[in-house]
Amino acid sequence: MEAVVKLLSDLVAIPSMNPMGRGRIGKEYSEQSIAEFLAGVMRKASIDAELQQVSPGRPNVIGVISVGARETLMLEAHLDTVFADSMLIDPFDPIVRDGKLYGRGSCDAKGSVAAFLQAVVNSLKAAKNMRYNVVLLFVSDEEYRFSGAQYAVRHGLKADVGIVGEPTQLRIVRAHKGVTRWKILTNGIAAHSAYPDRGKNAIYAMAKVIDRLEQHADALRIGPAHPLLGPPSLSVSVIEGGQAVNIVPDHCWIEIDRRTLPGETAQSVLESVHALLSNLEGCEIQEPHLSVSGMEVADHAPIVQNLAQAVRSVCGEAIVEAAHYATDAGIYNSFGVPTVVFGPGNIAQAHTESEYIELQQLHQATTIIERFLTS
Ligand SMILES: [Zn+2]
Asked: What is the pLDDT of residue 1?
């Protein structure tokens, strides 16, 4: 078995599911084992590696290679995966069949972890001159709160340019939307529902809030659009309220998902919502519990052009595009590190019941990163 396939098999065989805030515990719901394994692989290749405890049992792993180059490249991908409950294949027994490797995380995003690390190991082994110093950063908790990446930028991450590995089918994503999520609460007064006048109905109050948010969502849809990403969007996605059908509800809450354009911030989004709801009584707008910025790297930026050249040298052509999903790249770009998204595998297979990656793309991604590093 070739080295990168062996490495990916080893990674898939170590469960690292994100508990997604649902109280699941145990080492299969932790990045600890996979981070320790990767640190071991790095040290064997004489790469300085250390774990960064983001929260108990949820580390990032960082490897640093200094070659005295002028610039430092960050190669980043996430260690965590979504749950494997409903999978039709054995999620942690990686099987290779018909040129594909099956298993949870094979495509999202352990394929990128394997390709990035193997490319660096190969470059070091071949003793070729590297154009960049490299920071290998494999983070925890991308699927839920993006906290691994946020921790890394707050704790001394140093890089000049970056590539975030996600299954883009070897396309270079140079722009994507961001996401901000928060809750709105309405409070009422409980009463027996035979005497509704004695209470105050929190669900009726919420109905007014939702009506305004729907109008706001419509306005966003036909408002200013980004040339690659289109307009921003808003969705009221969860609602809960009341205790029982014979009680006037004294509480109701909704959860909102707002997709932002590059340049919009959580603060600017929340300010417009405050203005929108300012004259409605009894509603409380919470602070966002998740916010990742959108990002855009210029088409002519060296990270885009040099990576495109490496992709062309392997695949014949290079596709540069925009995506609608949010990634860690939003965090690094906000931090001032021009970072694109690029990796093997197809996002259509991410999170699916028989997740797989095409091995040809895994090999190509490894060669592309190696050429990007060394030519
Ligand atoms: Zn991913």
From this structure: 73
- In whole angstroms, give the CA distance from residue 262 to residue 139: 23
Which residues sit with Cβ closer than 5 angstroms to ligand 1, an ion? 108-109, 166
CA dihedral 254, 259, 261, 264 (to 10 degrees): 20
Q: Is the Cβ–Cβ distance between 190 and 249 less than 8 Å?
A: yes
pLDDT score for 247: 97
Which residue carries 């722009």 as its tokens? 175
Q: What's the Cα-to-Cα distance from 374 to each of 41, 73, 75, rounded to whole Å? A: 21, 12, 14
- Ligand 1 centroid–CA 112 distance in Å is 9
Return d(Cα 252, Cα 3) in angstroms, integer. Answer: 54
Give burial (CB, 10 Å; 0-12/13-18/19+) of 69: middle
What residues have CB less than 8 Å from 35, skipping those under 6 apart? 51, 59, 60, 61, 79, 138, 140
Ligand 1 centre distance from Cα of residue 143 (Å): 7
Strand partners, 358: 100
Cα 117 to Cα 362: distance, rounded to the nearest angstrom? 12
What is the average pLDDT across 199-210? Answer: 97
By the 8 A CB rule, do 232 and 261 touch? Answer: yes
**What separation in Å is there between the alpha carbon of 77 and the centre of ligand 1?**
8
